[in-house]
Amino acid sequence: MNTSQKPVIKMNGFINFLKPPGISSHQGIIFFRKLLKVKKVGHAGTLDPGAAGVLPVCLGKGTKASSYLMDTRKKYRAEIYLGVTTDTLDSWGKIVKELPLDGIYSRDIINVVENFKGKITQVPPMYSAIKKKGKPLYQVARRGDTVEREPREVFIYSLNIIYIDLPRVLLEVECSKGTYIRTLAADIGESLGVGASLSFLLRTKSGPFEINEGFTREEIEECYQAGRIQNLILPVDIAFLHLSQAVIKEEARKALMNGVSLDTASLQKYEISDKIVRIYSPAREFLALGRWQGHPPHLKLRPVKLFV
């Protein structure tokens, strides 16, 4: 018997991975798949190869929650380099235009940045994973071609200037899903009339995951080799702790698992909400997400996503 073989551990939930610059989000997932020897691995929001910071990695049943996590707010530290425009809109691309910063002052930058708060419209960059006729735009861009992209509405919840040291401007951004910080940098530069590119990007928060609670690749490898990887795995329901909850009676479990809507008599306790609700067993096992249907006294809780 090979006693050196590691026991199989069920891995369901999330690891708050601090992605280093220089690797793609997909390469980060390959690292986890090889290290942990699990098939169901994904992430909840792409980070550009040149960017670093919080990349929530979904394991096992956690992959069922990835689409919900992608809808959450993100926070970044972003450095803009004014006067230099590149084809990728960041420092990793080819310089296509350089302009002097004559006549650009801090007050001009402060005034322009104010215009990018709230609801704004962005045209996604050519170097992005968005697909056009089945092909990622970055593949089209690498051939030297450009295609028309539909503008998208995004929301900038906060946009604060940390410092200005021309040609560099450091910003802190909190934004909605789908926001391209590279595009934000380029648009700010365009509004100033000198162009700009993104020279540094660090994601500091993604939904409930924060940078000061994350783990590097080296730390994760060390925990795995020491048999402590389970200490890093956060439970699946951490993605939904902001939602109301309901606890079913044990005898209602089978019906719930079969997709049957439960009346309030089948619940031990519950909170009524017009949003998605977390559903637990009496032993606090996270079972599903559900939605309320009907009106009192005929309320029913319908399961919409099972996690067992």
Protein described:
It holds the Pfam family TruB_C_2. It catalyses: uridine(55) in tRNA = pseudouridine(55) in tRNA. One of its GO terms (biological process) is mRNA pseudouridine synthesis. The protein is α+β, with helices and mostly antiparallel strands. It has three domains: about 15-70 and about 210-235, Pseudouridine synthase (2-Layer Sandwich), CATH 3.30.2350; about 75-205, Pseudouridine synthase (2-Layer Sandwich), CATH 3.30.2350.10; about 245-305, PUA domain (Archaeosine Trna-guanine Transglycosylase, Chain: A, domain 4). Helices cover about 20% and strands about 35% of the residues. The chain contains seven helices and 19 strands. It has helices at about 25-35, 65-70, 105-115, 135-140, 180-190, 215-225, 255, and strands at about 15-20, 40-45, 50-60, 75-80, 85, 95-100, 120, 130, 135, 150-165, 170-175, 195-205, 210, 245-250, 260-265, 265-270, 275-280, 285-295, 300-305. Strand 18 (about 285-295) and strand 19 (about 300-305) form a beta hairpin. The longest helix is centred in the N-terminal third of the chain and has 12 residues, at about 25-35. The mean pLDDT is about 90.
What is the domain tally? Answer: 3
| Residue runs with pLDDT of under 50 for 5 or more positions | none
CATH level-4 homologous superfamily of the largest domain: Pseudouridine synthase
Shape: globular
- Helical percent range? 10-25%
| Main β sheet profile | 9 strands, mixed
Structural class based on helices, strands and sheet pairing: alpha+beta
The CATH architecture term of the largest domain is 2-Layer Sandwich
* Residue share in β-strands: 35-45%
Assign the CATH topology of the largest domain.
Pseudouridine synthase
Give the total of beta strands: 19
Number of helical runs?
A: 7
Q: Which class of the largest domain in CATH terms?
A: Alpha Beta
Family: Belongs to the pseudouridine synthase TruB family. Type 1 subfamily.
Domain Pseudouridine synthase II N-terminal: 33-181
Keywords: Isomerase, tRNA processing
Active site: 48 (nucleophile)
